[in-house]
Design brief:
Blueprint: E1 28-33, H1 48-57, E2 62-64, E3 75-77, E4 85-87, E5 92-96, H2 111-119, H3 132-136, E6 160-164, E7 167-171, H4 179-182, E8 211-215, E9 224-228, E10 246-251, H5 256-265, E11 273-275, H6 282-290, H7 292-295, E12 298-302, E13 306-311, H8 319-328, H9 331-338, E14 344-346, H10 374-386, E15 394-398, H11 403-417, E16 422-425, H12 433-437, E17 446-451, H13 459-466, H14 489-500, H15 504-519, E18 524-535, E19 540-541, E20 545-546, E21 551-552, E22 558-559
Parallel strand pairs: 1-10, 1-11, 15-16, 15-17
Antiparallel strand pairs: 2-3, 4-5, 5-7, 6-7, 8-9, 9-10, 12-18, 13-17, 13-18, 14-18, 19-22, 20-21
Helix pairs in contact: 8-10, 9-11, 13-14, 14-15
Length: about 550
């Protein structure tokens, strides 16, 4: 085995037994990406790869452990000394910053920097990124962000208070028992006001983590380069190992087959490279799984998430028409085009089985007909037509414009043709896909998405995807992750009720029940709970899949 601390993930995502090889610092790690990250400004970072990269640059009050499997879903203090001190039943939380945490220029990170970084999310300039700050923080409804001086006479958001230079207090609208999990997200990261370049901050965020951006993407195929932050203090950081001297981010758009082939051959730069986002293409799968040496260099395992197709409820308004689409969908052929069962298990829920909130159900009995049930779908469409609510005969479908998704979406066209529905494929570019698809007025009738929970709790699945109040009021603004555009007052109330439940065990049951209730309204087609098979070079070590990112934990790998 060429691996150091772990071999490739076992199928259940746990790390294999460690090898007796000592990690070493130095060298260059090459990360192969499908597309350039939409944002690296922590205020707008939300996609998993960007969060993985951001963890190298930005520190947060709490963060996930550097481990695979269930252990990786546990959180630890990062900038903070502990996981928070709640009071008033979980409506108030206090955190204290560690001594010796600094910016890349050696200046100390203070409470004021944390407060300012969070307040940026309320500025009109930032429409993307998680909405948790506005969902959670009290007295935030009319706050306009730190660029508007009249806010609270310049004092900023009153629900974030600096008790002293190192102690921060959050006042929430409702009790939030898993608030420390939310704080792992970059949107809660500190930002020093004097370094805030607003729209340009995404090109060069000021580093608090072990790496800083030395070279940005040049738009001509050149990599983004991360180099060491000399003022990062490892004694204050129990998670990031920061072994490589340099990390290159290399874009290989629509080159999945070439990337797989190069990593299999393991020559030159490929030896120190890993396909961070790119799964092995179907034509190489059998070669990899049947070759013992290649299998040692393949990271495999389940992603604790769900791939689905959102059905735009503002366009496909009759639930029977939406249910007909769910019944007619051919999961076997769709998954086959993605590479088969090695790349995912069939899904009937939005909450993935890895989460405690998961409730097993199959509302429409689709597991019994993995190739679809077009006759049942036709019957529902006929009922709707008799009631004067005929289902549309033409639907538009949005998805990432990659070869992989083009293959999969061709099966959607074929499946829905069996119920006399024509699907017009309208792909969006892979870079910026969730920004474009997240603009309500740009969405078609069907939108493909893959959701990885922000943390291992039902709140981070149900609320972002089905709370109608998160849909931008300006429908030409991006930042929407509710691809079904579901805005059901009863569902919204039940989301609030679950959020307010202070007993986390009871809360998780409520999320599972709510998942089932939502699926009965047929707002999405749950497709698969994904798995990955990703190759890396023989000089890349400790490549294990982190459950928070659904890809290799960059902060733990080393080369040599």
């Amino acid at each position: 085995m060429t691996l150091a601390l772990s071999a490739a993930c076992t199928p259940d995502g746990e790390k294999a037994a460690p090898a007796e090889v000592k990690p070493q610092a130095g060298g260059t790690l090459n990360l192969i990406l499908r597309a350039q990250p939409d944002f690296l400004d922590p205020t707008q970072v939300y996609l998993t790869t960007a969060m993985n990269i951001s963890r190298l640059i930005d520190r947060t009050l709490t963060t996930f452990k550097d481990a695979g499997g269930a252990e990786g879903s546990e959180i630890v203090p990062d900038l903070a000394t502990d996981l928070g001190r709640p009071s008033e039943g979980g409506k108030v939380w206090e955190f204290t910053l560690k001594k010796g945490v600094t910016w890349e220029d050696g200046s100390p990170i203070t409470c004021a920097h944390v407060k300012y970084g969070i307040e940026r999310r309320f500025a009109k300039e930032y429409t993307n990124g998680p909405t948790y700050p506005s969902q959670y923080l009290a007295n935030s409804e009319n706050y306009k962000g730190p660029y508007v001086n009249k806010n609270n006479n310049g004092a900023g958001l009153s629900s974030i208070q600096c008790l002293n230079e190192s102690t921060i207090k959050f006042i929430l609208k409702l009790p939030v028992g898993d608030f420390p999990y939310s704080l792992t997200m970059p949107v809660w990261s500190p930002v020093p006001p004097e370094q805030d370049t607003k729209a340009n901050y995404t090109n060069r965020p000021f580093a608090s983590g072990p790496y800083k951006i030395a070279q940005q993407f040049d738009g001509k195929g050149g990599p983004m380069v991360l180099e060491r932050n000399p003022h990062w203090n490892p004694s204050t950081d129990g998670v990031r190992k920061a072994y490589p001297d340099k990390i290159n981010l290399i874009i290989r758009e629509n080159q999945d087959e070439e990337v797989t082939d190069e990593l299999i051959k393991d020559q030159g730069e490929s030896k120190t490279s890993i396909a961070l986002q790119t799964d092995a293409t179907p034509n190489f799968v059998q070669q990899i799984v049947n070759d013992a040496d290649l299998s040692k260099r393949a990271m495999s395992g389940a992603i604790p998430g769900t791939a689905y197709i959102g059905i735009n409820t503002t366009k496909v308004t009759d639930p029977r028409c939406r249910q007909a689409l769910i019944l007619a969908f051919n999961k076997r052929r769709f998954r086959g085009m993605l590479g088969g069962s090695i790349f995912g298990d069939y899904a009937t829920t939005m909450i993935p089985p890895d989460l405690k909130a998961y409730k097993k159900f199959d509302v429409f009995g689709v597991d019994a007909s993995e190739e679809g049930a077009p006759e049942k779908a036709r019957a529902l469409m006929e009922q709707a037509a008799k009631d004067g609510k005929p289902c549309a005969k033409t639907l538009s479908a949005n998805f990432q414009d990659t070869k992989r998704w083009q293959r999969a979406m061709s099966t959607v066209v074929e499946a829905f043709a069996l119920i006399d529905i024509t699907v017009k494929l309208e792909p969006f570019p892979a870079r910026g896909y969730y920004t474009t698809a997240g603009t309500p007025n740009k969405q078609g009738d069907l939108t493909v998405g893959t959701w990885l929970p922000d943390w291992p709790g039902g709140s981070s699945v149900i609320q972002p995807n089905f709370d109608g109040r998160t849909i931008p009021k300006d429908r030409n603004t991006s930042g929407n992750y509710n691809f079904a555009q579901l805005n059901d007052p009863d569902i919204n109330k039940k989301i609030d009720a679950a959020m307010a439940e202070s007993n986390l065990d009871k809360q998780q049951v409520m999320w599972g029940d709510l998942d089932e209730e939502i699926q009965k309204k047929a707002p999405i087609i749950p497709v698969i709970h994904p798995k990955v098979l990703r190759m890396y070079g023989s000089k890349v070590h400790n490549a294990f899949m982190h459950p928070a990112f659904g890809e290799a934990d960059i902060s733990a790998m080393w080369v040599g």
